Amino acid sequence: KKYNVAILGATGAVGREFIKLIEERNFPYNELKLLASERSAGKEIEVAGKKYTVEEARPDSFKEIQIALFAGGSISKTLAPEAVKFGAVVIDNSSAFRMDPEVPLVVPEVNPEAIKQHRGIIANPNCSTIIMVMALKPIYDSVKIKRVVVSTYQAVSGAGKEAIDELTDQVEAVMEERPVKARVLPSASLDKHYQIAFNLIPHIDIFVDGDYTKEEMKMVNETHKILNDPSIGISATTVRVPVYRAHSESINLELDGPLSPPEAKELLAKFPGVIVQDNPAEMIYPMPLLASGHDEVFVGRIREDKSVKHGLNMWVVGDQIRKGAALNAVQIAEYMIHQNLI
Ligand code: 2RA
């Protein structure tokens, strides 16, 4: 069976990855509609050898559409319910509906059972959350988790094409001893911007209560929802680093029971979508340059934390644009097709 598919945000970093993935994975589409803001409408994009013209997204763009992949952004809030009215299933990468009790928040390898509760919209979790829960799930299922302390090292791709270009421009400017321009990070919407080249910015999205950022609270709240366990203590520090595509995370766990590093490695290696890269003697561990462009989440530096009872450390790396966003959403759609949920 083939489906009429729409991609909203087709010209952005995540939207372009959607297109790459439906080609690579032979996604079963009949009609394909590429939708974007008025600014990007009119662009021509080739998909599987056929040329498509990007159309301005409007509510009636979703007439006849069965699967709508939303790359993210505020436009989701208004257009997702409109697309559902036309009978489409919307898989939304924006944060608009993630904490809505009627909207499943899904990583297919972690909580696929949540998908069938959907009422038209399924939310794709935040990239840093997806990458973390892929590593937490096999451990959680074995010995439950009391507390998570995570520090992230997030690629500029998370802030979109403009941030990717800005990193390049700034590195060139520094090398050529020209003035460095900062216009995008930490967030284009803020009125102060900082250089990311050769720097780290401990600020992603906006500040909220308790001087945490929204990005940090997403990791807390979304993980609770996906694992369906609000009792897990979670503390996050999210940092932007001068890396192009893959997010890295240093994760410290206090488990509810004993789990040695070899036992943890075995659980992780068996988990679909996770690859263990952990051999210090051979200098084998995940790195963003190695993880970029891949589908899996990579885990290494697995070691006991003797400073607490049942303590465990690990280092987790995943491609923010693929598993962190576009791939996870496409896998949700594929799962629904295979389970006859669409
Ligand atoms: C970021 N997680 O990295 C956010 C959105 N992708 O900027």
TrEMBL record:
Entry similarity comment: Belongs to the aspartate-semialdehyde dehydrogenase family.
Binding, phosphate: R98
Listed EC numbers: 1.2.1.11
A Pfam family this chain is assigned to: Semialdhyde_dhC
Binding-site residues, substrate: Q154, R240
Function, in words: Catalyzes the NADPH-dependent formation of L-aspartate-semialdehyde (L-ASA) by the reductive dephosphorylation of L-aspartyl-4-phosphate.
Species this protein is from: Methylomusa anaerophila
Name this protein carries in UniProt: Aspartate-semialdehyde dehydrogenase
Residues the entry annotates as binding NADP(+): T11, G12, A13, V14, R39, S40, S157, G158, P179, Q320
Gene3D superfamilies attached to this UniProt entry: Dihydrodipicolinate Reductase, domain 2, NAD(P)-binding Rossmann-like Domain
Enzyme class: oxidoreductase
InterPro entries: Asp_semialdehyde_DH, Asp_semialdehyde_DH_beta, NAD(P)-bd_dom_sf, Semialdehyde_DH_NAD-bd, Semialdhyde_DH_dimer_dom
HAMAP family: ASADH (MF_02121)
Residue positions of the active site: C127, H247
Keyword rRNA-binding: no
Reactions listed under catalytic activity: L-aspartate 4-semialdehyde + phosphate + NADP(+) = 4-phospho-L-aspartate + NADPH + H(+)
Subunit structure: Homodimer.
A GO MF term: NADP binding
Domain of life the protein comes from: Bacteria
Keywords annotated in UniProt: Amino-acid biosynthesis, Diaminopimelate biosynthesis, Lysine biosynthesis, Methionine biosynthesis, NADP, Oxidoreductase, Threonine biosynthesis
Domain Semialdehyde dehydrogenase NAD-binding as annotated: residue spans: 4-118
Pathway given in the UniProt record: Amino-acid biosynthesis; L-threonine biosynthesis; L-threonine from L-aspartate: step 2/5; Amino-acid biosynthesis; L-methionine biosynthesis via de novo pathway; L-homoserine from L-aspartate: step 2/3; Amino-acid biosynthesis; L-lysine biosynthesis via DAP pathway; (S)-tetrahydrodipicolinate from L-aspartate: step 2/4
GO terms classed as biological process: 'de novo' L-methionine biosynthetic process; diaminopimelate biosynthetic process; isoleucine biosynthetic process; lysine biosynthetic process via diaminopimelate; threonine biosynthetic process
SMART domains: Semialdhyde_dh
